[in-house]
Amino acid sequence: MSPMKRRRGPTLIALTRDVSPSLARCELTHLSREFIDVERARAQHRVYEECLRSLGCDIRRVPEAPGLPDAVFVEDAAVVLEELAVITRPGAASRRDEVSSVAEALTPHRKLVEIEPPGTLDGGDVLVIGRGVFVGLSARSDEDGARQLAAAVAPHGYTVRPLAVGSCLHLKTAVTRVAPETVLLNPDWVDARAFDAFERIAVDPNEPWGANALEVGGAVVYPAAFPRTRDRLLRHGLDVREVDVSELAKAEGGVTCCSLVFGAGP
Ligand code: CIR
């Protein structure tokens, strides 16, 4: 086949990590502990990966970390931008050993900058929209972490905007981007006015946990647990790809937190 006719490979990389056998000992903040079927969680996670693959992602798995219950939630370990990746210092001490393997996986792709103690930052608190970086000040991410992030990204033209987070774990539990200029949010957990430059879709009031969606490849990966909010997304003309992540949700995980999606570069 001539080079002209060769199909282009995926341009997106999605870092993921298999569900740890110790997931049942995960951190929990807002939910009560209930039985988690790890095999089922693994099966759901594989379907999630398949969904990302179908949207053009090349799945690269970070090595398993059986002793780290929350290791599947790779989003919290890094913030990946076009120009650099910021390796976080998670707010939960039990999660700090997750970051070195994620940093190693990112090394071939991005220049790395690390959040230093005593600052804390979870990737789940960082929402990037264009050159705007919203950072949730939560139980996991503090002002020092936000300041360090701002210093790392400012030279590349990004502006960090810290925001208070309500009764939920992370900023991205409360608001995510579902299209380049559109956010999905729960107005009880984040100040919707902070997003008045964007089109805003509110979750259905009966589905407060429904604001965590993952925009990738022009589609929106979305949990099957929130059909009313899904209908709102569909009414906005969005291409919604439903996934069942019910076992991961028992660990307070959603669809953004199970991957780090970024451009593979030129
Ligand atoms: C934790 O509490 O850290 C985990 N059980 C859940 C983390 C979910 N991460 C995310 O939404 N970014």
Explained architecture:
The chain has 266 residues and is α/β, with parallel strands linked by helices. The protein has helices spanning 38-54, 99-106, 143-153, 171-174, 227-235, 246-249, and strands spanning 12-17, 57-62, 78-80, 84-87, 111-114, 126-129, 132-137, 159-164, 175-179, 182-185, 199-202, 214-216, 219-223, 240-243, 260-263. The protein has a 3-stranded mixed beta sheet with strand order 2-1-15. Strands 3-4-5 form a 3-stranded mixed beta sheet, with helices on both faces. The longest helix has 17 residues, at 38-54. It is globular. Citrulline is lined by residues 26-27, 29, 70, 73, 75-76, 92, 95, 124, 169-170, 172, 251-254, 257.
Topology, number of strands? 15
CATH class equals Alpha Beta
CATH hierarchy: architecture: 5-stranded Propeller
Proportion in β-strands: 25-35%
Could you state the oligomeric state of the chains shown? single chain
- Strand count, sense and closure of the main sheet? 3 strands, mixed
Count of DSSP H/I helices = 6
Gap between N and C termini = 22 Å
What number is the mean pLDDT? 95
